[in-house]
Amino acid sequence: MLFALRSAPSFRKAPVFRLFGLLLTLFSLTHVAQAQVQLRGVVRDKDTKEALPFASVAVPGTTNGTTTNLEGEFTLVVKQLPTTLLFSELNHVKDTLRITSAAESLNILLAEATVVLPEVKVASFPFQLVDRAFRNLQRNYRRNYYGKAFYRQITRIDNQPTELQEVVWNVKSNPARIVGTTLAQGRYAAVQAPINLSNFSVYTRKFGLFDPGQDSTTSLALMSPNVEKTYLLELKGIVGEDSTGGVAEINFETRPEVKYRSQGTIWIDIETYQVVRYRMTQPSFTGSTNNPRQKFEDAKLDIEMTFRSTNGKGEVAPLELMKMTLNTNLTEPGKAPLAINVSSFTYFFEQSAKVQSLPYARASLTDRDLDAIRAKPYDPEFWADNPVVKRTPAEEEVVSAFEKKGAFGSMVKKAPAQPARSLRNGQVVR
């Protein structure tokens, strides 16, 4: 029948063939559109049922993956079903699941990983691991990654949200830090308050595990040649099946004689010496405001960095997320102290080693985030239903409150203005 249609000389039958071809094209496009499937779910601890934030969710053998938010929730778009997902979290046993339907939310339970306390490791073992991790970072410092990063910051004064900033950067990073950024999209909203911290992102963009520009002989960083002189280390255990492989969990704290105070935990792969996660608290953080009457007291800064898993196949890996949290009291003569909490979260995505020719700028204390955000036209469609912009219920409540006040403008693009019309001689004219 198809042969007859193609070969028939009649002009009338040609449109029938074109219609059939059009239907085939539409069917193909529909099939492609339907092939994109969105999966959603939550990852929890198998025993406690508590949510596992920042757990990895990935399609094995591909670069397609995501991480859970603070509530353990995730969404991931896959090409088709069935598919297999790999779930992993540093202190839990990895698990895979064959997914055949997206009709219901996935409830993933991960068992806690075995923590081995090696008996034969001498006291110098954690110092050896940290030193080798430092040498590893030093050796691979010029290995760059290019991609995007989503940054969200919420400021609360006496537990009331007063400031919200959301930004997407084009970002250049390496295995130790953010190297430079350029703004892709951003938005900011605030209510009247005694203080704003709209430039808090500079701490995220400037902090790094290692800085080759510092004097290594005086550096107080954990990742430096001075770790034995500056820090006390304690090996808490090795996450893995046995003590010959896995990830070492090491607690660190500056020695009592060192004025600079820092404490936290670092996780290092004992085979590749890759830093997997870093968590640090500065209990005596110093900061100031542009109001000479205001002072920060009892300031504490918490920093967390997580790097993408290489599954033991690489020495270093790009950043996956960064968290910064500042808790302090703002004092001013004649006024009651105000409890300040500033929390930020940065998620890195679409990263690769392919060089991008963008004007990446290094962070500077003179940066003004609001100036950069205001220089970019606000695009409400960019923020609406953006899968990267994942929020916890608490964050969603804050964002919704600001949106209701029109702080960002409408989340839906406004309809184009209609030209003025009038009636003349029974006809509508413009």
Automatic annotation (TrEMBL):
* Protein name, UniProt field: Carboxypeptidase-like regulatory domain-containing protein
Cross-referenced Pfam families = CarbopepD_reg_2 (PF13715)
Q: What is the lineage of its organism?
A: Bacteria, Pseudomonadati, Bacteroidota, Cytophagia, Cytophagales
**Listed InterPro entries:** CarboxyPept-like_regulatory
Q: Which organism is it from?
A: Hymenobacter endophyticus
